[in-house]
Amino acid sequence: MEYNHHANIDLHIHSTASDGTLSPIEILNQAEKLKISAIAITDHDTINGSKEALSIGIPSSLQFLTGVEISVSPLPSYLDSGTFHVLGYAIGSDDATLNRALDTLKTARKNRNPKIIKRLNDLGINLTMTEVLDIIGEVDQIGRPHIARVMIKKGIVKSIDEAFQKYLAVGKPAYVDKYRADAAKAIELILGAGGIPVLAHPYLLQLKKGKHFEDLIVALKAMGLRGIEAYYPDHSPDQTAEYIKIANRNDLLITGGTDFHGSLKPKIQMGSGTGDFFVPYDLYEKITAFSNMGTK
Ligand code: AMP
Ligand code: ZN
Ligand code: FE
Ligand code: FE
Predict the structure, then answer these.
(1) Is 90 left (phi over 0), alpha (psi -120 to 50) or beta?
(2) What confidence tens digit (pLDDT) does each residue in 147-205 have?
(3) Can you tell me which atom of ligand 1 is nearest the CA of 145?
């Protein structure tokens, strides 16, 4: 099979196994239609999306990496509470230790949902867990985005953004914290499953005052980090260039993806983000050269 080396790749995609709105088969079909040459399904705290895609069968025009995106707790010496996500690529999806740890994280998310509903009820909003389950139907994992979708359906808010900004985001009245793994633990789990740990969308990190991003990268690399997601739709060209420079200086892989979530993030298209976004194919080759577990 001759792959199109000028085509783009998308190594950050969410499926219905977490909070994306397309199932793994729909993602494979869409990637094929858009002529994307390589993808990874990177669901929050689960590899079920990747597993399902593999069991369906990857179209011959497409290359595929298993993936996961683990939410981790901030490193106390470098970060304030913010969004800190570690991606894992080319992981052995049957690794028992990783699967057990992911189950713990999934349980934490599941146990949090009724607490969020209770907060919303205390704020005078009429919503039950049963309604959420009825409206969302069969999905692997329910989280805040699903609750937000039900709030739209019930006319409580007009958009996902409004639901987060008014109620569900960190610091808002219906926010409930949940258990997260340590960065070192998440990295160890990914390495233990034969995978490649990568820092996701670094622009979302909240560095403590006086702390430097590159020092954080050095600390994470000492834990086993192997790459930085430099290409991301919300990164400015300057930010992308800076992340690439830091990755090169520290001998780390460079990755990229759109964080496609289907209609949950309607402005973001698979492979092309808001339109002119592009992740070059040669990054995929460097990642697979690094790992003999890249499939196909
Ligand atoms: P949860 O897994 O329940 O903590 O939900 C986290 C997910 O919600 C994130 O990964 C995003 O996909 C989504 N999310 C977080 N903040 C926002 C926001 N402001 N607007 C839309 N979606 C968001
Ligand atoms: Zn998400
Ligand atoms: Fe993320
Ligand atoms: Fe993501």
Answers:
(1) left
(2) 999 999 999 999 999 999 999 998 999 999 999 999 999 999 999 999 999 999 999 99
(3) 8
